[in-house]
Amino acid sequence: MDWSQGDDAPGVIRMIDQTRLPSETVLLDIGTVDDLIGAIQRLSVRGAPALGVAGALGVVIAAQQFETEKAIAAAADIRSSRPTAVNLSVGVDRALAAFRTGGLQAALTAALQLRDEDIAACLAMAERGADLVRSLVGGRPRPMTMMTICNTGGLAAVEHGTALGVIERLHLDGDLASAIACETRPLLQGARLTTWELDRMGAPHELIIDSAAAMILAGGGVDAVLVGADRIAANGDTANKIGTFSLAVAARYAGVPFIVVAPETTVDPATASGADIEIEDRGPDEVGGFGGVRTAPPGTHARNPAFDVTPAALITAIVTDRRTIRPELGERPETPLDQDRSR
Ligand code: MRU
To answer: Does 47 show up as a binding residue in the annotation?
Structure first.
């Protein structure tokens, strides 16, 4: 995803339409607030860091499209278009603060700065996360197998990604035996997007159905589970794609380290615990069928929480771009950085 602007023309957000992958790589140019909100809600752009940058650039779109008061109202609509990933509000708020003081150009500068910070954060997390994984398994005994869920790669950020960025780093270092991608029902971000990204990086990988994960973890052979995050509460409870909590329970049972990889912008000190995190409900249709084909009888009631919360006690480590936090040892993300021994 990036900002694209010709001479004297309004700019657009250029992004891959993630709903069309892996069968087609289609670029979308988003130039209106309505189009951006639509793209966010149907998951053409998705993943917490990507939503943050899209939200910030969305403020620029709003400032191009509307006079000041209407632009501010449109920014609020973008901010609330999906509730769980805190990065969306962080991105909107940053660009909006710049817009209020310096107008459109200041908003664009702030949004592009967030984009650049996101790329740098992903590179830092990749290094820190790969080092942590190597240390948790006791050095570099052999290439390792990582399990992951949803999609946390370059598609979900600006470049490289979070948990998948760590997997890419391990692969580039010759330390990856295989990445196991959970398919991630109901929208199949793992099956459609993570496998596509792993294939492009040339990393060995396997796809499993979500319900195979516990058995495979308990059977041994997985060295760590690496996941992203949509919001990390002050106490370390972490919201991420539905199914993450089950993976954490299974990883604990199997004695496998469970590691959350997310930028500092995903840590939300204003949210005390997981109980305070709003979980997006995406309605029954995505559960009762897929790709326009109904699988459940018409009228079947279905629940579709898009995220779950993994309690801090099940998390071996949270790796951000600036520190490593060990929730299972009682460390909390809200600890100020200068008092944090884990840095
Ligand atoms: O509904 P999605 O596809 O936006 O959910 C995405 C996730 O849950 C990711 O794991 C999370 O945003 C981290 S992406 C680096």
So the answer is: yes
